[in-house]
Write a structure and sequence with these properties.
The protein has 155 residues and is α/β, with parallel strands linked by helices. It has helices spanning 17-31, 38-45, 49-56, 58-73, 84-90, 112-116, 118-128, 140-154; strands spanning 9-14, 34-37, 78-82, 97-104, 131-135. Helices cover 55% and strands 18% of the residues.
Length: 155
């Protein structure tokens, strides 16, 4: 993916959602930016997920989720976190974001789906993110330091 231009946000994605969220929150504090979890925003917009599925169907649910993600993507001066599944289907919405892949080795991943499909998901993220941050362990401080170094060089 080409390097971003005129970005106002930083989007963190990886195969370990909770770790990405924790790093994004820490990074936002260090950079004095806003923080938002795309998953939490979707949960807010789609509070009655099962009822929506039952009454309106999967297509309508996906449309509501995409609307929430478009809202996230429109934020300014925000560090965002997003899980792989939402990113995979909606990454093109984040044109105002420098997209960073927090890459952990498979042994450090707890998410079962991500472990099973590690190679495929890893390749997708490497192809569709602007930057890859290699991490040998789940350490928020190290992750933030590496992200700031890479963004400082590139932007």
């Amino acid at each position: 993916m080409k390097e971003p231009k005129n970005c106002t946000n930083i989007l963190l994605v990886g195969l370990e959602n909770e770790f990405c969220k924790d790093v994004a929150e820490e990074l936002s504090a260090k950079l004095q930016m806003h923080f938002a979890s795309c998953e939490e925003l979707i949960a807010y917009h789609v509070q009655e997920r099962e009822l929506i599925l039952q009454k309106a169907g999967l297509n309508y649910l996906k449309k509501r989720e995409k609307t929430a993600l478009a809202e996230c993507a429109s934020y300014i001066d925000t560090v965002l976190s997003i899980g792989f599944d939402f990113f995979k289907n909606n990454f093109k919405l984040f044109t105002q974001s420098a997209i960073c892949y927090l890459r952990l080795e498979i042994e450090k991943i707890n998410d079962t789906k991500s472990k099973i499909a590690y190679e495929e998901r890893d390749q997708f993220l490497q192809k569709n993110c602007h930057f890859k941050i290699e991490l040998t362990r789940k350490d928020k401080q190290i992750a933030c330091k590496k992200i700031i170094e890479v963004l400082g060089e590139k932007l």
